[in-house]
Amino acid sequence: MTESYDAIVIGGGPAGSTVATALARAGRRALVLEKEKFPRFHVGESLLPFSLPIFERLGVAEKIRAAGYQKKFGAFFWNDVTGSGTRPVIFADALDDRHPMAYQVKRAEFDALLLSHSAASGAHVREETSVEDVLFEGRRAVGVRARGKDGREEEIRARVVVDASGQGAFLSKRLGTRRFDSKLKRAALFAHYEGIRWPADARPGDILLPVAEGVWYWVIPFSDGSMSVGAVYDPALAKESGAPSLEERFEWLLARSPRMLDFLGGARRTSKVFAISDYSATSGKMRGDGYVLVGDAATFLDPVFSTGVFLALATGERAAAAVDDALSRHGRLDARDLAAYEKEAKKLFARFRRFVYGFYDPVFFEGFCTPDPPEKMRKAVTTVLAGGVENPPFVQTFWTQLMLLVVGFDRVTQRLRRRPGGAPA
Ligand code: FAD
Q: Do 270 and 231 share a structural domain?
């Protein structure tokens, strides 16, 4: 058994580095154990504007500005399923327009910047060190067993264990509380490209999101001129493609969209094709005596609205505050110290989840892409899509609820119209 810390953080992604930085800035001894050597490739390159105030509070905003990442002012959706409609989302037009801009980042560099900021803030960071087990005394987490790059195992004690292990969801898998969201069963293939033709009707820097039958695509531009391209699809399509390799399946999916083919005409793929599936999942329990879950390890929603990194930062920051407060008050972390954290985190996830479910509902998506939604409704939805989900004002809640109600009403009337005579059977 080696030295003891206030907190051990499993994973050095955005959630883990946020917790470590916030705790270190509060004067806590925090240790991050990260199994990879940074920089390392990671999906999740389009950030939301409401991440920026969190970067300010973590003291990393100036470093991010200096890194010169691609600025992003919005998103552009094409409804190519029915061929009708587009939806430009312009963050400056949000009801809450304090944060009109975000960044598009290569996660290898970005995550390394955040993690080195944790170290500069006073956290201890060990890369190439994998957590093999969380140690419990009774129901209380008291540390971890970790394996370093030399293969040596050691037990390290801490008053708190923070699970920021991302999709690996280390602790909730061990405790058997991880649940997949069957409504969001999707798979994704993605790669980096050079030489993509930028469409005339989209603004430079925006994320582009063409939506076709059974598959939607992302094009994320970076400041060096290269771009990330992804296809998120119904896994049933994998069989239909008959493609023996990931590369061929990716080509097949891209070829389903004449728009994507147009963007990619003359482009060159510069990375291998990456794959991930069944990623939308939640951990029923986000807290316990001596432990807390943050970021993807707590919950991951489908990526259509680029919410993952924002939620990693937001939950990371809140969890760190709750941990610091509990340690100050009684020198340990009990499950009940995290009740407010868990409630708030679940609310944040739920506010986005309604829109994610809506996106896969043809009636909702058709409504989303109508040319002239009421102005207040459009602005309220834009605020949510910018990440403005923490303490939303009444007017925002009212308009987003109204939109969901209108969609629900539309769905019912469409169903009735489809019945013979247009009347209920
Ligand atoms: P991660 O970033 O995954 O970090 C977890 C870290 O923990 C990793 O570095 C891992 O190596 C480490 N780790 C895991 N297990 C151990 C262990 N046992 N010991 C030590 N270290 C460990 N989000 C966006 O904001 N914008 C997007 O455009 C976007 N697109 C996406 C597209 C797809 C297809 C998918 C699947 C996700 C996308 N996301 C996007 C989501 C985003 O990738 C995640 O939400 C985000 O990375 C979560 O951060 P995290 O810190 O919780 O986890």
A: yes
Note whether 144 and 241 are same-domain residues.
no
Q: Are residues 45 and 123 in the same domain?
A: yes
Distance from residue 423's CA to the centre of ligand 1 (Å): 49
**Ligand 1 centroid to 416 CA: how many Å?**
43
Asked whether 358 lines ligand 1 (CB < 6 A), one says no
Distance in Å, CA 409 to ligand 1 centroid: 37
Q: How far is CA 196 from CA 67, 115, 192, 263, 280, in A?
A: 23, 31, 10, 6, 29
308, 222: one domain:
no
| pLDDT digit string (tens) for the chain, length 425 residues | 556 899 999 999 999 999 999 999 999 999 999 999 999 999 999 999 999 999 999 999 999 999 999 999 999 989 888 877 888 889 998 888 888 999 999 999 999 999 999 999 999 999 999 999 999 999 999 999 999 999 999 999 999 999 999 999 999 999 999 999 888 889 999 999 999 999 988 889 999 999 999 999 999 999 999 999 999 999 888 888 888 899 999 999 999 999 999 999 999 999 999 999 877 899 989 999 999 999 999 999 989 889 999 999 999 999 999 999 999 999 999 999 999 999 999 999 998 898 888 888 877 777 777 777 777 777 877 887 888 878 788 777 877 777 777 766 766 666 666 654 444 33
116 in any annotated domain:
yes
Model confidence, pTM:
0.94
For ligand 1, mutation pick of 33, 35, 131 (most atoms within 8 Å of CB) = 35
**H helices, E strands: number in the chain:** 13, 21
Considering its fold, how many domains does the chain have in total? 3
Q: Which residue has the tokens 């879950």?
A: 293
For residue 41, the enclosing domain spans: 4-69+105-180+282-349
Ligand 1 atom closest to Cα of residue 306? 26
User: Could you tell me if 64 and 194 lie in one domain?
Assistant: no
Name the nearest CA neighbour of 303 among 180, 392, 186, 163: 186
Question: Is residue 52 assigned to a domain?
Answer: yes
Q: What are phi and psi of 2, to 5 degrees?
A: -105, -160
Cα(263) to centroid(ligand 1), Å: 27
